[in-house]
Amino acid sequence: MAVEILDPPPGWGRDDLSAFVETARRNTFATFVQARQVWALLGRIDAALRRAIEGMHNARAWFEGFFLLRAHAAYLGAARLSTSGQLPEAYMILRGCLENALYGLFTHENPGLGEVWLRRHDDAASRQRVRDEFKIGRMMDLLEARDPGTGRAARDLYERTIDFGAHPNELALTSVLRLTWGEGAVRFDLNYLSDNSTPALALCLKTNAQVGVCALGTFRLVVPERFDLLGLSDELTRLNAGL
After folding, report:
1. Residue 20 CB burial class (10 angstroms; 0-12, 13-18, ≥19)
2. Where exactly are the structural domains of the chain?
3. How far apart are CA 87 and CA 232, in angstroms?
4. pLDDT at 136 > cutoff 90
5. How far is residue 91 CA from its own chain's centroid?
6. Are 77 and 191 in contact (CB under 8 A)?
7. Which pTM does this prediction carry?
8. Helices (H) and strands (E) in the chain, counts
9. Averaged over 62-69, what is the pLDDT?
């Protein structure tokens, strides 16, 4: 389906909010032009996630498919942020992508927990049970037991997302902070939008790709036969080789 690119509406860019969004959009254009290999890789991962979603049609693991959809949506949201230079914010969304993948596998391996998850808001006891059952450590342990390589990658990526923005940690600040020394004063500037020349942006784009591949590897454990039939298992091998 062709996408029509519309001209900005009247008044766009004249207020601070729309001016910021426009700058972010133009940064995305710059990433598209200046980092074509990375953009192409992100696109391949997006295509693989879309094929995985299509492959869930009539699958017995239909409930887990909801988490695949949410993981894909988070991947796209992170790509929009990372390619525009909103780096700490992208890491927040990338953490969500990983968590949705983990929830998908965890509910697949523990079928009764699907209903527990759905009943979270029934009452205080139901909310507490979800908190008790869906612990990130338990889900990571399960993934690593099923696939040690993907499990190790998920742990490392999860910690990276927390370090660089999913929590208000030191690297989330200092990775986008610029200091300028002047006469008798120090100026601190925080980059809301990092440009393509910064190592921080390169790391975020790479993390975006790695998280997408990790999510795919996690969902392969849910429907391995579908991944094999669709050629996604081989595509995963190729994608991992480039990361």
Report:
1. middle
2. 37-241
3. 29
4. yes
5. 7
6. no
7. 0.94
8. 12, 2
9. 96
